[in-house]
Amino acid sequence: MMFASCKKDTSSSSSTLRVKAQATNNTFSVLKSGSLATPNFVWETCFINVSKIDFEAEKKESETSQGFSNIDYEWKGIKKIDLFSVNSVIGEIILQPGVYEEISLEIKAYKADAGSSPVFYLSGTYANSTGTLIPIRVIVNEDIAFKAEAEGGTILNAVNNYTSLINLNLALLMNGILQSDLDVATLTNGIIVISNASNISLYNKIKGNFNSSDHAEFNKD
Questions:
Q1: pLDDT tens digits, 91-114
Q2: What single string gives the DSSP state of each residue in 32-99?
Q3: pTM
Q4: Which is nearest to 82 in space by CA: 70, 71, 90, 91?
Q5: CB neighbours of 36 closer than 8 A, spacing ≥ 6?
Q6: Domain map of the chain by residue range?
Q7: CB 46 within 8 Å of CB 83
């Protein structure tokens, strides 16, 4: 999760945290017997229907203050985010004046808000052990959430506006899935469909990887 500051409008006593998200590693090797093999994933489409952002932190009145309070701000809204877009803005959190430490952002996506669209969708191609390209789809149609936490020493001072960037690493999302798993996966009309109704063991691995696939970095201009 990367934070970059920008100029603040001094007429306002609060500041704004703009939250963005993107998917990284859209091309990577699949594992074979614990080592990298030639076959690759190439992902072409990735989106998520976001319902809510939770911002949690310890807030102090100033950098020299000794006491702090635990705060929880939130953004609510239903927004479809293209995770391969450089302009993947989800929403904004209003920060009241103060200094924020121990920061985390949690993205929540609810099936009830996605309607007929998947909560999370990922599609591309997989090259199997013979080099044959097979279309592959990951379809999540249930509630999901993932959290990115700031590493020690990160401070947001709400005299500035900030932009955050949460990276969802697709290679880590597929962690634990081997070439042998994919080569015997069930095909639906020639497509490897990974969902709660097809290739369920692969689906459960991916679903379990969401909370370990995000990356947090913080920069301030």
A1: 999 989 888 888 888 999 999 999
A2: ETTEEEEEEEEEEEEEEEEEEEEEEEEEESSTT-S--EEEEEEEEEEEEEETT-TT-EEEEEEEPSSE
A3: 0.84
A4: 90
A5: 29
A6: 2-215
A7: yes
